[in-house]
Amino acid sequence: MKQRPVTTESLPVKILLISAAVIILSLFLLMPLFAVFAEAFRRGWEVFFASLSEDAALSAIKLTLIAAGIAVPVNTLFGLSAAWLVTKFRFKGRAFLLSLIDLPFAVSPIIAGLVWVLLFGASGWFGPWLREHDIQIIFALPGIVIATAFVTFPFVARELIPLMESQGSDQEEAGVTLGASGWQIFRRITLPNIKWGLFYGVLLCNARAMGEFGAVSVVSGHIRGKTNTLPLHIEVLYNEYQFSAAFACATLLAFLALVTLGAKSVVEHFTGHSSAGHK
């Protein structure tokens, strides 16, 4: 059957709208991305690699990878559990739980960081107890991991919940009827059905974890070579007028964004998955 057009606008109007979209995207997305790489290589490859291989840069890259390496698996486990709970069961407080999952989207990362300082800082609620037991959370790795996990934990859950709701529970109920255990149902029915959505959520979660600035900036203390993640290290270099070094480090985050977009496109190509809806 021949498909009917969904709009009746004339060809000049379509060209005008497409041109406007391309111009806006070029100005606000492509041009800044090009500027980052151009500035990074403006003083040559030697300066570029020297900026990435200095001790402070390597420490920032290592700390960023560690924080993301802990926060992303935690959020993946939480997202799977939360999505399973709210889509397979009906219980009192379900709407409240969904609101809590969305809380990091509504709270400024700066405010989130200040809350963690209020709780675990030297003068915070748990500060005296932590000091007695020689435990440091704020201005150390645990605080950075907590802040990163907080701002990123909705990504996996919010990707899986609409997907699992659209799929329903018919297959799982059939598995229960045939005597399958909960683990068998999850491994052989649920997980294969949500694997691309899960991958997509983990991808977004990882990109946000490695690029998080606000909350981590508050709890890190900005100790160069110790508690600066890559975004914080870039800010320090830029404030010290080391523009080439700052943009060289920024290319790593830009490269991560490009890899994320490429992987997202691959997932959408093979599954028909899109941000506007779910398969």
How would you describe this structure to a colleague?
The protein has 13 helices and no strands. It has helices at 11-40, 45-53, 55-88, 94-106, 109-120, 127-132, 141-152, 154-167, 170-177, 182-211, 214-220, 230-239, 243-271.
As a percent range, the share of strand residues is under 5%
Task: Give the number of DSSP strands.
Answer: 0
Give the low-confidence spans: 275-279
The helix content, as a percent range, equals over 70%
Q: Which structural category fits the helices and strands? A: mainly alpha
Main beta-sheet strand count, sense and barrel state: none
| Rg, nearest Å | 23 Å
Number of helices: 13
- Mean pLDDT over the residues: 85
The succession of helices and strands, N to C, reads HHHHHHHHHHHHH
Distance between the termini: 23 Å
Highlighted features:
279 residues; mainly alpha; 0% strand
Task: Summarize, please.
With 279 residues, the protein is mainly α. 77% of the residues lie in helices and 0% in strands.
